[in-house]
Structures are given as structure tokens and as C-alpha cells.
Amino acid sequence: MRENGVDAVSLRHLAARVETGPASLYAYFGNRDILLEHVLDAAYAEVSLVDAADDGRDWRDALAGTIVHTIETLETYPGLGTIALGSIPVLPGALRLAEHELALMESGGVPSDRAALAVDLIAQFAASTAVERTVRLSRGDVGDDREHVLTAYERADAERFPHVARSASLLTGPDDSARRDFAIDVLLAGIERAGVRRT
């Protein structure tokens, strides 16, 4: 998967790589989807977990670091983020990650119901961020289109889109790391905030 991405993975191809017959793999993985769920879980098991201090004061930094490591791990398996978006992980690697995130939030005084929702939101954010980057890299986009986008925003009809035209450099300036870190800050602020129920 690291070499060729998710789309290239098949049980038949994998069987050839490990020099066995497809029937042998089907005994362990009933189909390709099950295989990919296990690959996703193996990736989650690789994520470096960042611990907070014993007093729990830096739980936000620890959670932010763990989220960054999750994104970086998913990015090493091109296309694996799409598998993460389409599944509810229940295998040990994912449970390890969820346990760590819940423990960090508990140490920061985040109510359990909000922490539970946050685990799901964090997983969605990590997967979608990894998908965005790997899709752009697969197209050969390494930031070269930034100038094109900036020009398009600057040339936007100032009467119809005054804010876009005025903010063109701000909309296109931040790099991937800055965008990711801002999103994580917003996530953490939202997790800390008291829940507001909308009807």
C-alpha cells in the first residue's frame, strides 16, 4: 500500500507478494474490505501517542501532538484515509488510540459525553486531512497551483465577492501545516467549550 496506494491492493496481488495462494489469505480475510480494515488498524497501532504531564495541565498539547501523528501515519499509506472515513474501527489499534484520546480529555476535565463525540470528530478530521494531502500528491500538486488560486481570488468580481477579493492572500497564504494546526486549535477549543444544544 505504501508503494502503490489503496487502489492497487487486492488479495490476489498480496498472495503473490507473500508467495501463497489467494485461498490461504481468504482463510484470514474474507474479502478485500476486511483486509483493508486490518491494514487501517495496523496503521493506527503505529501512531506515536503523546503523553500529558501527570498533573494533566498540557493535555491539549498532548492531544494535538497525537492528532498530528495520526495524520502523518495515515499519509504514509496513500488512500488509507478513505478507508478510515468509511468505517467504524473496532480493532485493537483503533481502540488504543481512542483510549489515549479519552484519557487525555478526562485529565483535562472534559465531560465524558463530549469526549466521546470528540473521538469521532478527531478521527474524521485526521482521515480527511490525510485524504486531502494524498489526493493532491497523487495529482502531482506540491503547491504549484497556489499562485493560480491566488490570481483567481484576486481577480474575483469585487462587487459580487468583495471579501474573497480582499482576502485573497490570506486565503492562499497558509501552508498545509499552518492550516492543520489552526484546525486542531479550533477542535480543541470546541472540545473544551460547554456543549450548546441546538434545536
- Summed over residues and divided by their number, the pLDDT gives a mean of 87
Helix content percent band = 55-70%
Task: Spell out the helices and strands N to C.
Answer: HHHHHHHHHHH
Number of strands: 0
Tell me about the biggest sheet?
none
Proportion of strand residues? under 5%
Structural class by secondary-structure content: mainly alpha
* Contiguous uncertain segments of 5+ residues: none
Number of helices: 11
Spatial gap, N to C terminus = 44 Å
Q: Could you walk me through the main structural features you see in this protein, from its secondary elements to its overall organization?
A:
The chain is an all-alpha fold and 199 residues long. The protein is 65% helix and 0% strand. The chain is built from eleven helices and no strands. Helix 4 (59-75) runs antiparallel to helix 6 and helix 4 (59-75) packs parallel to helix 7. The radius of gyration is 20 Å and the shape is flat. The model has no long low-confidence stretch (mean pLDDT 87).
Detail the topology: elements first, then pairings:
Layout: H1 11-17, H2 22-26, H3 32-46, H4 59-75, H5 80-85, H6 92-107, H7 112-138, H8 146-154, H9 162-166, H10 168-172, H11 176-192
Helix pairs in contact: 3-6, 4-6, 4-7, 4-11, 6-7, 7-11
Descriptive tags:
199 residues
Task: Characterize this entry briefly.
With 199 residues, this protein is an all-alpha fold.
